[in-house]
Specification:
By secondary structure, this protein is mainly alpha-helical. It has seven helices and four strands, in the order E-E-H-E-E-H-H-H-H-H-H. The chain folds into two domains: about 5-110, no CATH class; about 115-159. The strands form two sheets. The protein has a two-stranded antiparallel sheet.
């Protein structure tokens, strides 16, 4: 971990796919890690400690955290899926999101990037807003809307 430059680097063999990966930390994570580093013990390389001791088992801590947060049935792996979805929905190109998440293939990445009904509705709203903006900024005819198609078709038939 390089807090000065705000990155975490995983070396080959430390990741699920055995490839090295560097991830930039956002401001929230930089703050969390800076706090952890001020509280850490110098005789261990572990960043995450419980009562000053390295965490040996994760399962109990995860279950307690989920219970405290009222997240029944949440799996730790769900965080990876959430991260992928958040990256894509925030406009990060899918190729970049794949690199950050460590997905080598499109098919596996797509399993994490689950499309919901809400996503489909938002896509319709975005397209509608885009076409509306195109129509406002147009000096001539605008392709892409049913109304414009109907107007052009009517003009051709009757004009």
């Amino acid at each position: 971990m390089d807090l000065k430059n705000g990155i975490v680097r995983k070396e080959p063999g430390e990741t699920k796919n055995d490839e090295a990966r560097t991830v930039d930390l956002d401001e929230e994570l930089k703050g969390i890690f800076k706090k952890l580093f001020t509280e850490r013990r110098l005789d261990t390389s572990n960043v995450f400690l419980r009562d000053g001791e390295p965490i040996r088992g994760f399962r109990k801590a995860w279950l307690k955290a989920c219970k405290d947060a009222k997240l029944k049935g949440m799996l730790f792996h769900d965080l990876r899926r959430t991260a992928v979805r958040n990256m894509v929905r925030s406009g990060i190109p899918e190729g970049v999101a794949m690199k950050i998440s460590g997905h080598k293939t499109r098919s596996v990445f797509d399993r994490y990037n689950i499309v919901s009904d809400r996503d489909l509705k938002l896509a319709t709203q975005k397209q509608e807003a885009y076409l509306s903006e195109q129509e406002k900024n147009s000096t001539g005819s605008v392709l892409g809307t049913i109304q414009n198609f109907n107007e052009k078709g009517a003009n051709r038939r009757h004009g």
